[in-house]
Write a sequence for this structure.
């Protein structure tokens, strides 16, 4: 049994369905990338998987049990989530934020421990934030703040990580650094990672499994070589392209056709 899955899942905002009757099984121990155009429902789906948004219809299952029937702390000990646009209380330092990742393990019988300290320090080191640990989040660049939030998710030390656009605000070098980090966490630690990515070629390089979403439904899913096709890019993104092998990894690489956008995009061809 796969640990995380959905059945007939419908997610809505103010009564308007965004995700519709979606059946999805997240492969254990692999990296899954959710791809699709803006507004297709990627982030909404991630929020549903994380129990941040209650289904209108259907279920999200964690280890075979409806995730909404499980205690919040039990879920938080198994699912780490990095939401888009997360905001910390004013005056929080990096270390204070990262330490919040240990909250699910605290109770009146078990207070802060040396293991908590170890995991916080490890998360700071892995994300390159040790030297900035005492800095206020308000004084950091957007990229540094993003790494601090990722460190908090790592400190939570869960077997499943859900990340909504983890490379947001990062320049290309830091994007690759974070994606390499997540890849190592998966390959060396066996963590299941689900992340929303906009950059298709990065998704193909780093993910074992792609889920292409169009208008709240799964258009295609599977290995990048199965999903990343010229037809998929045209139908999902409204873009004519060529798919060629990445010269470094051999994974599919999307090269947009020169000046040829599908009519649905509303952009006039050059």
């Amino acid at each position: 049994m796969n640990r995380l899955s959905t059945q007939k899942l419908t997610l809505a905002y103010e009564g308007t369905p965004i995700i519709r009757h979606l059946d999805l099984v997240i492969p254990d121990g692999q990296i899954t990338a959710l791809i699709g155009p803006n507004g297709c429902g990627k982030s909404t789906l991630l929020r549903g998987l994380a129990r941040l948004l209650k289904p209108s219809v259907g279920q999200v299952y964690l280890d075979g049990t409806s995730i909404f029937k499980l205690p919040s702390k039990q879920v938080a000990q198994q699912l780490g989530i990095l939401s888009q646009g997360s905001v910390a209380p004013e005056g929080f330092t990096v270390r204070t934020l990262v330490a919040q990742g240990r909250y699910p393990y605290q109770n009146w019988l078990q207070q802060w421990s040396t293991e908590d300290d170890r995991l916080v320090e490890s998360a700071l080191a892995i994300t390159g934030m040790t030297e900035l640990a005492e800095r206020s989040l308000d004084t950091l660049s957007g990229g540094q703040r993003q790494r601090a939030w990722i460190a908090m998710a790592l400190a939570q030390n869960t077997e499943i990580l859900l990340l909504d656009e983890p490379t947001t605000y990062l320049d290309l070098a830091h994007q690759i650094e974070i994606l390499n980090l997540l890849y190592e966490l998966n390959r060396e630690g066996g963590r299941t990672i689900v992340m929303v990515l906009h950059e298709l070629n990065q998704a193909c390089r780093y993910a074992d499994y792609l889920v292409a979403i169009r208008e709240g439904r799964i258009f295609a899913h599977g290995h990048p070589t199965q999903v990343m096709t010229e037809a998929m890019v045209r139908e999902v993104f409204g873009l004519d392209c060529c798919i060629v092998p990445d010269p470094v990894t051999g994974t599919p690489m999307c090269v947009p056709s020169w000046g040829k956008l599908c009519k649905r995009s509303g952009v006039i061809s050059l």
Observations:
- The CA atoms of residues 60 and 66 lie 6 Å apart.
- DSSP finds nine helices and twelve strands in the chain.
- Residues 260-270 have pLDDT under 50 and may be disordered.
